[in-house]
Amino acid sequence: MPLTTEQRYKPYEDWTEEEIKKIKENAAKSPWHTHFHIEPPYGLLNDPNGFSFFKGKWQLFYQYFPFGAAHGLKSWVQTESTDLVHFEETGTVLTPNTPLDSHGMYSGSAMQFGDKLFIFYTGNVRDENWMRQTYQNGVLLDSDGNWEKVPQTLIAQPEDVTDHFRDPQIFFHEGEYYTIIGAQDIQKKGIVKLYKAQNSDYCNWTFVGDLDFQNDLTSYMIECPNLVFVDKQPVLLYCPQGMDKTIYPYDNIYPNMYKIADSFDTENAALINPSEIHNLDYGFEAYATQGFNAPDGRALTVSWLGLPDISYPTDRFDYQGVLSLVKELTIKDGKLYQYPVEAITSLRKDQGSPLTDKSKTNNIYELELDIAADTQAEFLLFSDEDGHGLKILADTQNGLITVDRSQAGEQYAIEFGQTRSCTIEPGALKFNIFIDRSVFEIFINKGEKVFSGRVFPHETQSGITIKSGSISGTYYELDYGRKTN
Ligand code: FRU
Questions:
Q1: Whose CA is closest to 323, among 303, 309, 339, 347?
Q2: Residue 1: per-residue pLDDT
Q3: Nearest ligand 1 atom, CA 122
């Protein structure tokens, strides 16, 4: 039974222990919990938030509603890591508890200032008539996990936008701090607003302008805009909801797109010479991707492997949503590459074994495959004895890759199609595929193209079946080590 609005916005303290116990017990019954991805044991995870580096540790928060698979009163849950692969929840949960965020601490970003981590987030507020106001607010977190909200709002809703104004991303560029915020303007078009911190003061922001990135202005809202720099080139990652499919023929309910530009003109709020629009991920779900430039300059990203307004098979177990692996962005020959950080290989249990058909795995592994040129390769993951599974087709003669999940596990979101594909230069291909019980992340040519998504396999679906084509490679069992589920 979907939760009512009243249940979704019920104060956290009004949920009884009995109710919470039931939710936890139900979630524990799911066969699909991931092993090495960030996922809540119960409740709903959506956007990655506050991805940053603070006091010697990587910080990665996520949007969270604890009481079932629903978008309700949102908090931030903190996780920390020393290698960007193993993340541990700290128990710190930032909750909506002020008049500036009474109906949810929505998405945002973080950056260290002095000995505190400054968190910039959207306060979602509804009045008695359920009219929304949004505020861009701050929280300061110290290294002991104590947090204090900045008492005043830092950026109020401007007059030329609707109540859809959210997801501040703070970043540093050539000696100054900036923030971009996603918005819907009063003509109901998705735009991105740019602000600059006065004298590097995170409490004092001035509006610079609406970001000019040759926005096609066909979306009705831009969520989660992020600007990162890869070898000095700005890359804008954003989610233009409702974007016209003649601009780009995406399949998912909402797209996560990007543009690469030559430079960032801070005075005129413009990306100079922005590229055409590209799909960040060709799979079934990667959304609200958050990026930041690490202190060492690397551009790191992480995505929500889930989408708004979609029901998932895990909903009946009172949980939903998972984060992707952390990826590093690079640009080669003008093309954006996304690939998990180097430490991901630490999950490999051993040197691996040559790829062969397998009737059964634990659905926790990595495959590194070489697909020859001029071949029509076809193989199945999550395969069963009936020849069903997640079908991957790589036509290296014509340069076409297709992922078909129509025969893999419980079906959902079928109105958005059960296959995804992309084109690529004809010729030999390398695939690195990470499988984690109900997650797949497929990186082609070390991240030139990426397909991410969920599969909720039937109990019998855990094999690997090579159907045709010239494929060779290595199978690595993966082990996260510390996590027991
Ligand atoms: C994107 C989003 C954000 C918002 C958050 C609320 O998935 O809608 O725009 O801040 O989720 O949870």
A1: 303
A2: 77
A3: 10
